[in-house]
Write a sequence for this structure.
């Protein structure tokens, strides 16, 4: 469980997160909001790239904000990036094995192979990432997030720019992550069909403030959410 | 993620990888070239070129270190010349002051520069690009200033080991097995090979993969739990170590060192040749060393071209690299040769597969098949 209390982030004069308080219980949770609402900033706070002005984040009882950024990955925070960050010069295996893991030797290799096999999509461990397409690169990033006993997985618009069939594959992969790893997944995406297919609960940010949270279906029908995020009272799912 | 992990084939990565044909061919070519350089070359060269090639071998270690920083980690350092100078100073001081075996002195000089280089650059490691370049250039400047006062040891006493009387100045000693110039050349080549292997082993193991990650995306490295400061420092320490060894090697090659021989603009020249040679491949370091040490000597002998003019050539070279060949000569030359081969083959035998005009022929073949 992730408990966020009164989280505020300021960039100079801009307040990106404004006293955000939210709890992510378990399974896959969605985090949506219009562009600039503070979703990626929130991820950056969790992964340690941004230091908040105030507030606290307790993850499974641990104070996340007190850990150095690289230590958070060792604790179990994993993330993917809005612009995918698979390393071109390395193989799929090396990309995935990059993640810090407490496992050693054969167990570690098996863990990496299992992650690559799990995300599927025709990925082979020996392939150079530079030769892969956008969808497969996304899968490499997801596989990286599944390696080495993750506890909190942050997926930042994993389906952005993907064609429908690849999004469908990604949806099925994301759906089975909590059962596979036992980790809590937070998904940021603009693709509402992906969010409603995958997330049991969803939180909505607008101008750095939480405006709604709860079961996804209910949240997406919330009038405030429709007005703030979707700009209309009608949502076509 | 170990729930689904069944028994799997071991990963075919890193040093344990079974070499494929291409790797074997490459290894054979490199071995033959090195054997030629070690045994066939010295008897064929005049003293002038033996000295020059010794400098090439030594500077290839320096460009190796800088290439590692620039090409693999993305750290643009202009302080490597200062590290070389410190290595040469420490080497010379130890060679005059102690009777230690030469190899030990090389390692000690490397360790000293490793510590100094890492300590000095530690605060600068949060910086990248232009700012890191500026800070390290200032470092090089500071070392030059200190050196101008301290001078290189030349058999004197005290900490500096400098004898200001210009009388009875002994030469820096060489190892007993490499007293002559050709023998010292061979020794330098062997040391260079060892340094290249040291860096190669790093590149093939986890540090190499982590450096590649840091270079492309520091956020990705951090998100993977990599302590990027440690790995950057590691790269800096390794580069400083090999450069320090090169410094001590240079002390024995030159036998007399003068602070005037290491002006600060050489730091920029060094970066220029590394970019021109190719910072992304180990062979680029060798090309860079030839540009830095062999080309000026050759041009001087052929047409008495002063060394200072080379900076113009290097300026044009760097522009060319930045504009058309980001991988440097080491990357571009084989590509150009392949293109030339295809062109010539096309001329001799008609259109080659992949060449313009060959598509139609291929398509026809496909239909008939």
């Amino acid at each position: 469980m992730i408990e966020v209390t009164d989280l505020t982030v300021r960039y100079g004069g801009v307040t990106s997160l404004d006293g955000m308080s939210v709890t992510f219980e378990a399974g896959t949770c969605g985090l949506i909001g219009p562009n600039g609402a503070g979703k990626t900033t929130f991820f950056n706070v969790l992964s340690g790239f941004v230091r908040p002005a105030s507030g606290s984040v307790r993850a499974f009882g641990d104070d996340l904000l007190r850990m150095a950024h690289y230590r958070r990955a060792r604790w179990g925070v994993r993330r993917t990036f809005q612009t995918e960050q698979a390393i071109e010069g390395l193989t799929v295996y090396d990309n995935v094995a990059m993640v810090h893991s407490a496992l050693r030797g054969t167990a570690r290799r098996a863990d990496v192979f299992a992650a690559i096999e799990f995300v599927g999509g025709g990925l082979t461990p020996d392939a150079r990432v530079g030769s892969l397409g956008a969808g497969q690169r996304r899968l490499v990033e997801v596989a990286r997030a599944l390696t080495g006993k993750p506890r909190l997985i942050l997926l930042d618009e994993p389906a952005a720019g993907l064609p429908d069939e690849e999004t469908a594959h990604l949806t099925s992969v994301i759906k089975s992550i909590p059962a596979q790893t036992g980790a809590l997944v937070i998904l940021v995406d603009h693709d509402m069909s992906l969010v409603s297919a995958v997330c049991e609960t969803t939180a909505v940010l607008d101008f750095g403030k939480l405006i709604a949270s709860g079961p996804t279906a209910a949240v997406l029908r919330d009038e405030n959410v429709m007005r703030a995020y979707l700009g209309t009272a009608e949502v076509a799912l | 993620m170990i729930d689904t992990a069944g028994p799997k084939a071991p990963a075919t990565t890193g040093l344990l990888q079974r070499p494929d044909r291409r790797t074997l061919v490459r290894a054979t070519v490199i071995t033959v070239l090195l054997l030629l350089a070690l045994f066939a070359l010295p008897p064929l060269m005049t003293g002038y070129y033996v000295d020059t090639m010794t400098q090439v071998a030594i500077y290839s270690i320096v460009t190796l270190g800088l290439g590692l920083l620039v090409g693999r980690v993305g750290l643009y350092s202009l302080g490597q010349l200062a590290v070389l100078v410190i290595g040469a100073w420490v080497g010379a001081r130890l060679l005059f002051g102690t009777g230690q075996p030469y190899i030990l002195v090389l390692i000690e000089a490397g360790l000293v520069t490793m510590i100094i280089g890492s300590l000095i650059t530690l605060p600068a490691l949060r910086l990248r690009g232009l700012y890191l370049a500026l800070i390290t250039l200032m470092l090089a400047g500071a070392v030059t200033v200190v050196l101008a006062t301290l001078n290189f040891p030349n058999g004197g006493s005290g900490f500096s080991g400098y004898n200001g009387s210009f009388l009875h100045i002994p030469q820096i000693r060489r190892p007993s097995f490499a007293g002559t110039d050709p023998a010292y050349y061979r020794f330098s080549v062997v040391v260079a090979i060892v340094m290249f292997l040291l860096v190669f082993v790093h590149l093939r193991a986890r540090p190499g993969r982590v450096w590649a990650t840091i270079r492309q995306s520091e956020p990705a490295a951090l998100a993977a739990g990599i302590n990027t400061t440690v790995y950057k420092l590691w790269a800096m320490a390794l580069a400083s170590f090999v450069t320090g060894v090169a410094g001590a090697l240079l002390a024995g090659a030159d036998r007399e060192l003068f602070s005037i021989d290491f002006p600060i603009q050489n730091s920029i020249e060094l970066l220029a040749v590394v970019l021109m040679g190719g910072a992304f491949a180990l062979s680029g370091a060798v090309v860079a060393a030839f540009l830095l040490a062999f080309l000026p000597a050759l041009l001087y002998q052929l047409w008495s071209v002063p060394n200072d003019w080379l900076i113009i050539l290097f300026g044009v070279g760097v522009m060319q690299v930045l504009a058309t060949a980001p991988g440097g000569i080491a990357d571009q030359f084989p590509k150009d040769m392949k293109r030339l081969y295809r062109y010539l083959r096309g001329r001799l035998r008609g259109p080659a597969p992949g060449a313009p005009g060959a598509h139609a022929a291929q398509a026809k073949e496909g239909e008939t098949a």
